[in-house]
Amino acid sequence: MDILVTGGTVFVSRQMARYFADRGHRVWVLNRGTRPQEPGVTAIVADRHDLGGRLKGLRFDAVVDVTAYTRQDVEELHRALGGFDRYVLVSSSAVYPETLPQPFRESQPCGPNVFWGGYGTGKIGAERYVREHIPQGYIVRPPYLYGPGNDVYREAFVFDCAEAGRPFYLPKDGAMPLQFFYIEDLCRFVEILLERRPEQRVFNVGDPETVTVRRWAALCYQALGRAPEFRSVPGDVPQRSYFPFADYGYALDVSAQRALMPEVKPMERGLTEAYRWYRAHRELVRRKPLMEFIDKYLT
């Protein structure tokens, strides 16, 4: 296939471009050229909001839009495209209001979420444009993504704690649930959508099982062959000051995904691969001063 991937230089979009290029597809990436390009792809260096006629002479079998955060993002790209067959918007679980019963299902209404703010409402607008104007479009809603290439200081923070032999500070009793999705599984599911063309257009995606933050941290330490010493932090301490996730646990119903893709990578293996990547690419991760806060206020 001829595939256009928006972005192509950071985590999700870069791994998406690499996944399809590695499988023999012809991949174009659309970005502003401010970072190194992935080998084996054709770069279209431009701002997606100022494309002019750059894309009109090209025809793609698929467009995988990873970098759309608002309705305007999708609308301007859609209008700039020449011919294309299928379109996949990588949206987010942030489109579900926190007040809905869980696990969230695709049939539930979207709406503002106090924990996600403008990010979630922006994704709602992007989804709405796809549903109204791109009949051959698909929408995927992942939870937290992890794995090789992750430049967000999440699992990398726990790896740092494990390497240094530090105790790990858990919010409260560590029982808050989180749901994750391995980056290659996301790429594989997008490939399935492009190949099988199911009638359903909106899919929650993710590991079928949630994990507590205690279990997640333990699995991160396990990737280094170590076990954490846990310490509990009271709820009156701002959680994002010492822990990489907000105080918001949620779960997605991924039954429709499982019908198309029954197996996902076990988290133990996924985190081992994430740590292997991190050891070789530490400089690419955007760190936050979580340890500094711990050392100053919690030890």
List descriptors:
alpha/beta, UDP-galactose 4-epimerase, domain 1, Rossmann fold, 299 residues, two-stranded parallel sheet, 2 domains, seven-stranded parallel beta sheet, 13 strands, 9 helices
Structural features, described:
The chain is globular, with a radius of gyration of 20 Å. With 299 residues, the chain is α/β, with parallel strands linked by helices. Helix 1 packs across helix 5 (183-196). It has nine helices and 13 strands. It folds into two domains: 2-146 and 181-204, Rossmann fold; 155-179 and 208-249 and 265-298, UDP-galactose 4-epimerase, domain 1 (Alpha-Beta Complex). It has a seven-stranded parallel beta sheet, sandwiched between helices.
Task: Based on Cα principal axes, name the global outline.
Answer: globular
Total DSSP helices: 9
Mean pLDDT: 97
The CATH class name of the largest domain reads: Alpha Beta
**What structural class is derived from the secondary structure elements?**
alpha/beta
CATH superfamily of the largest domain: NAD(P)-binding Rossmann-like Domain
Q: How many domains make up the 3D coordinates?
A: 2
Percent of sequence in beta strands: 15-25%
Short précis:
This protein is an alpha/beta fold. Helix content is 33%, strand content 19%.
Architecture blueprint of SSEs:
Layout lengths: L1 E5 L4 H12 L3 E6 L10 E4 L13 E7 L5 H10 L2 E8 L27 H16 L3 E5 L2 E3 L8 H9 L4 E4 L5 E2 L1 E3 H14 L5 E3 L6 E2 H10 L7 E4 L21 H6 L6 H14 L9 H9 L1
Parallel strand pairs: 1-2, 1-4, 2-3, 4-5, 5-6, 6-11, 7-10, 8-13
Antiparallel strand pairs: 9-12
Helix pairs in contact: 1-5, 2-3
